[in-house]
Amino acid sequence: MDSTTNEGASSSSSSSYTHSWTYDVFLSFRGEDTRYNFVGHLYNNLVQKGFKTFIDDEALKRGEEISSALLKAIEQSRISVVVFSENYASSRWCLDELVHIFHCKEQLQQMVFPVFYKVDPSDVRNQRKSFGKALVDHESKLKDNMDKVLRWRETLTKAANLSGWSFLADGHEYKFIQKIVEDISVQVLDSTYLDVAKYPVGIDFEQPETPISWKTCLQKMFEIAFCMSSSSY
Amino acid sequence: MDSTTNEGASSSSSSSYTHSWTYDVFLSFRGEDTRYNFVGHLYNNLVQKGFKTFIDDEALKRGEEISSALLKAIEQSRISVVVFSENYASSRWCLDELVHIFHCKEQLQQMVFPVFYKVDPSDVRNQRKSFGKALVDHESKLKDNMDKVLRWRETLTKAANLSGWSFLADGHEYKFIQKIVEDISVQVLDSTYLDVAKYPVGIDFEQPETPISWKTCLQKMFEIAFCMSSSSY
After folding, report:
1. Number of domains observed in the structure of chain A
2. What is the pLDDT along chain A (233 residues), one digit of tens a residue?
3. Same domain assignment for residues A228 and A124
4. B217–A213 CB contact, under 8 Å
5. Which residues numbered 150-169 in B keep a CB inside 8 Å of some CB on A?
6. A206 and A186 co-located in one domain
7. Start and end of every TIR domain (chains A, B) (predicted)?
8. Quick check: pTM over 0.90?
9. Would the CB atoms of B40 and A175 count as touching at under 8 Å?
10. Which of B32, B153, B161 minimizes the C-alpha distance to B86?
């Protein structure tokens, strides 16, 4: 297993970076907006497709700082999917998470895909509407740490400039989620191919398994049994 | 295939009743509340589990009367799942649909299960809050046809007295949906068993298929191949 260690790459985490991905997908989202509906369904679809997916527990977002467990999970994820929703930017934990995701993107070539869930990408990019209000609120509370807020702003702009998916409540959520999962499957297969070339030894990334029906399985078994019994006479 | 014909059982439909179910599940719901989110996900999960599921098109709920296509679909469904949401009762099409569903329950032993999606079953049962307001509105508009409104009220009460599922936005939607689909699977298996006893010839209902992974399938095939090759020596 190829492994690259970059200790101290994150000022807020004591963990080390490594390419031995533990998760296929890390989900970044605002719990109060989407945990029990959209993101829950997205998580379920990813898991059903065979992706090892990290979804945080509410308990990991308490206290002043984002937890080291959460930072480590981001570092151990091949892909981060960031679900921007109405109140994403009002959470400093979400914004810190986003900064760390971009750190991993730059340092570990982690793939990052934004999902704009009922928000306009341009409002995220330019911090307008709920995103604008949230950042102004943060600025008023963090007057001694304006660098931090500036970093949040820059990272939101970078994230909104990436390719992703946009949902504006005018279609079926389940079809939108299916599209995301299909696109991620393609990306993972592509990147696995690249990784195999780059790290030819000990790749431990598991391909998502495609489920088949028992009927198809039995059919295949009978075909084999028939071939074998024919050849033995 | 056993088939029972009850022509004229519905005054608003020219179709005939039959036990040759075309659909496993008919979904009754208020489009503007749940079509693109909750019901969409429920539909997708049912289909993925192998259930032939009827979900209406918005176009079927135009005009004065509920369309004959919709009535026929109800009659051809083994199970009706009625998703009560905030604005369900303000739609006369939904209420007419519900009355027809109960007609099929009584005449064809169709199974009916209510889902209370962010509404209290007792508000449906006693027509309070949004359900109360909707029925009062209908009464003010249908002064010459109070029998119709009374039938709607009685049917709402009957529906809310049935066993079903209740979701009050304090848990994961996807887990709630999984529970519904699992329970329906059990009900369908049970009723299929009963049907087999009752109608021993020509049952065309398809059992939902349980998907397995290719890995498991290959394992089974190798086991068979190994057994057969061992026995041929």
Report:
1. 2
2. 333 333 333 333 434 444 689 999 999 999 999 999 999 999 999 999 999 999 997 666 666 678 899 999 999 999 999 999 999 999 999 999 999 999 999 999 999 999 999 999 999 999 999 999 999 999 999 999 999 999 999 999 999 999 999 998 779 999 999 999 999 999 887 776 554 434 333 223 333 344 455 555 555 555 555 444 444 43
3. no
4. no
5. 169
6. no
7. 21-188
8. no
9. yes
10. B32
How far, in Å, CA of A123 to CA of A120, rounded? Answer: 5
Closest CA to A66 of A36, A32, A101: A101
- Do residue B229 and residue A229 have CB atoms under 8 angstroms apart? no
B187 and B208 share one domain = no
Cα A164 to Cα A109: distance, rounded to the nearest angstrom: 17
Given strand B111-117, what is the order of strands in its sheet? B53-54, B23-28, B77-84, B111-117, B165-167
Q: ipTM exceeding 0.90?
A: no
Which range of residues forms the domain containing residue A216?
195-233
Q: Nearest CA of chain A to the CA of B13: how many Å? A: 30
